[in-house]
Design goal:
Elements lengths: L1 H32 L2 H7 L5 H37 L8 H35 L6 H41 L4 H5 L17 E6 L1 H6 L16 H25 L3 E9 L8 E7 L2 E5 L7 E8 L3 H17 L5 H20 L19 H11 L16 H5 L4 E7 L5 H13 L4
Antiparallel strand pairs: 1-2, 1-5, 2-3, 3-4, 5-6
Helix pairs in contact: 1-3, 1-5, 3-4, 4-5
Length: 432
């Protein structure tokens, strides 16, 4: 089965690369057709001979390459889907079902793409008519823009849906394996912390033992670090209690032990251990120390940002920190209401149906994965196939992002108890 999974990875990567090429052709042809020089030739009555030459050139490109290429991708995706449906190619059942649903979404978008490509070809044929009127030319010009937009949008959606498999593969390759393999990726040592970079995504994984340790624990028994007063101790315990309860809710709701996400910020470039986490915690944005509690493991992923996206991301983070916007109660409840609705609808749907958080608003988007997805989205970077629906992105969705690289993990291996809690959990099997 491992060989079949490897083959599927190669096929998914091939499909993604072909879709990228097709999207590139869309961008090139749109710029070409609507360039000042070619626009005057294609959409003016006074240039029939030149228009004939240009339309013939474009038509040959569509007939010989673009139409067959788009239809071939659709056909190959349907074959890929049948192979993907086999049980065991992705070990985690939840991830397997999601990958299948997203592939159905990809096929639906590819069908739109093929229709758009054929539509453009038919419009180019109409432009060859010697007796064409100016009104008809204007209509064709407007329709061409619509088809190019459909082509570009569909290609972007297909790329995101198909690439989801690679994110699932990365999880199973690096994370859901036995403890001995996992330990070699542990960066929680002074000499390894230097590999962390500002902007890395930290994903919190909680062992089942951790989640059960605090079941029924009294509020007064929650430990806090050096409280300066009773008020501060109360606030700290309240925050910890909320955090634990949310971790448990997310685990139960998403069937995943991934319960939180944050961004790593290195406050002192000369000190690798100076890093803090910037995230939404307790309903507002801010910095917190790296939590290395017993039974906690952090998965470290590095987003593939270009320089412009990275600069924009940091600018957005500064704005969010200054705003200090808190999450509304209705927004928080909306996440779970919309999530249950999404689970119900998607149980009966072959494709994945996106359900947004209808109770959220732009000033209250502070759920941890929602916040992370939103700041990346504003920077022009889409983390998941759900990224346009920010309120419904969960930590487990971020873990399977297609546009990140696996850096390593962090867990406290300084004591046998801590080390054993993590490694024994992964030896028995986990849900990421």
């Amino acid at each position: 089965m491992e060989k079949e999974t490897e083959d599927l990875l190669v096929k998914s990567q091939w499909l993604v690369q072909e879709i990228k090429k097709l999207k590139g052709y869309s961008e090139y042809l749109k710029a070409y057709v609507y360039s000042s020089k070619k626009r005057d030739i294609l959409f003016k009555i006074s240039a029939p001979i030149d228009r004939e030459k240009e339309t013939s050139k474009i038509l040959n490109l569509f007939v010989d390459m673009i139409v067959p290429m788009s239809q071939g991708i659709l056909q190959r995706t349907r074959i890929y889907l049948e192979l993907l449906k086999k049980q065991g190619v992705i070990k985690q059942d939840k991830r397997h079902k999601e990958a299948v649903k997203y592939t159905y979404n990809a096929i639906a978008e590819e069908e739109i793409l093929v229709k758009a490509v054929i539509g453009i070809k038919e419009l180019v044929i109409q432009l060859k008519d010697e007796n064409i009127t100016y009104k008809k030319m204007k209509s064709i010009s407007d329709d061409l823009k619509k088809y190019f937009d459909q082509w570009d949008k569909a290609a972007s959606e297909v790329e995101s849906y198909i690439a989801y498999f690679e994110g699932c593969y990365r999880i199973e390759r690096y994370i859901t394996q036995n403890g001995d393999e996992l330990e070699k990726y542990n960066l929680y040592y002074p000499q390894r912390m230097q590999y962390l970079k500002t902007g890395d995504i930290f994903i919190s994984f909680k062992t089942m033992k951790y989640l059960k340790i605090y079941e029924g624990i009294k509020f007064s028994e929650l430990k806090v670090k050096d409280p300066s007063s009773k008020v501060n101790a109360f606030v700290a315990r309240t925050s910890e209690a909320v955090s634990l309860r949310i971790s448990d809710w997310i685990h139960r709701f998403t069937d995943s032990q991934v319960t939180h996400v944050a961004l790593y910020i290195q406050t002192d470039p000369k000190n690798p251990e100076s890093g803090k986490l910037f995230h939404s915690y307790g309903g507002s944005f801010g910095f917190r120390e790296l939590d290395m509690s017993l039974g906690t493991l952090w998965i470290v992923l590095r987003p593939k940002l270009n320089s412009d996206q990275r600069m924009k991301l940091f600018s957005i983070l500064r704005e969010k920190y200054t705003e200090n916007v808190r999450m509304t109660f209705s927004s928080f409840i909306g996440v779970f209401v919309s999530g249950m609705l999404s689970n119900f609808v998607n149980f009966f749907s072959r494709k994945h149906v996106h359900i947004n958080n209808v109770m959220a608003n732009a000033k209250a988007k502070a759920f941890c994965s929602q916040f992370l997805n939103q700041v990346f989205k504003e920077a022009g970077f889409y983390l998941t196939p759900k990224s346009k629906y920010s309120g419904m992105v969960f930590p487990s969705d971020v873990a399977a992002s297609k546009d990140v690289e696996f850096v390593g993990v962090l867990f406290d291996a300084s004591t046998q108890e801590s080390k054993e809690m993590i490694l024994s959990e992964f030896a028995q099997g986990v849900r990421v």
